[in-house]
Amino acid sequence: MNCPYCGDSETKVIDTRPADEGASIRRRRECTQCKSRFTTYEKIEEVPLVVVKKNMTRESFNRNKLLGGIIRACEKRPVTMEQMEQLVDWIEKKLQNTLDREVSSEMIGELVMLKLKELDEVAYVRFASVYRQFKDINTFIDELTKLLNEKKRPEQ
C-alpha cells in the first residue's frame, strides 16, 4: 500500500477492525518513511453477474429488477418487505456462490419460485403465471393442481 502523503510503498498496519457490519475491514496504517497515518478499507470484490435471457441476450444482474418482480407477485399478500429483501439476498448469494459468471434467467426464475412457494402460495402462482407465460386457463389449473398435490403428499 503506497503512502498517500509521500508515495513510499513501505507501510505497516497499526490497527485492524471490522467495518460495515463485517462486510469490510478498516485498517489504520503508518508510513515507515514519513510516519504519516492513514486509513484503508478492504472488502471482498464481487465479480459482476451476467444474466443470459431466453432470447440469448445478456444483461447485468439487476437486484432491483428482481425485487420489483417479487414485489408485484406479493402485492396485497401478507409478505413483508423484509421477507422479500431476504429472498433477493438469498438468491443473489446463491448466484454469487456458483462458479459461473453467467447465469440463465431460467435459473433465477426457478430459485424465486422455489422460495415463493414456501413463503406465499398465491404470490408463487402469480409469479409462475408470468414467468412460465401461462397461455390459457388450463395451464393455470395444471399448476394449481400440482401445488395442491404437493400439499396433500406430506399429510398422507
From TrEMBL:
| Listed PANTHER family | TRANSCRIPTIONAL REPRESSOR NRDR
Q: Which UniProt keywords apply?
A: ATP-binding, DNA-binding, Metal-binding, Nucleotide-binding, Repressor, Transcription, Transcription regulation, Zinc, Zinc-finger
Keyword Metal-binding included in the entry's annotation? yes
Domain ATP-cone: residue ranges? 49-139
- Write the lineage as a comma-separated list: Bacteria, Bacillati, Bacillota, Clostridia, Peptostreptococcales
According to the record, cofactor stoichiometry and binding are noted as:
Binds 1 zinc ion.
Give the GO terms filed under biological process for this record: negative regulation of DNA-templated transcription
| Pfam families, alphabetized | ATP-cone, Zn_ribbon_NrdR
| Cross-referenced HAMAP family | NrdR (MF_00440)
Zn-finger segments (unnamed): 3-34
Q: Does the keyword Endoplasmic reticulum apply?
A: no
Protein name (Swiss-Prot/TrEMBL): Transcriptional repressor NrdR
A molecular function GO annotation? DNA binding
Q: What is the role of this chain?
A: Negatively regulates transcription of bacterial ribonucleotide reductase nrd genes and operons by binding to NrdR-boxes.
Which family does the entry's similarity section mention? Answer: Belongs to the NrdR family.
Instruction: Provide the cofactor list for this protein.
Output: Zn(2+)
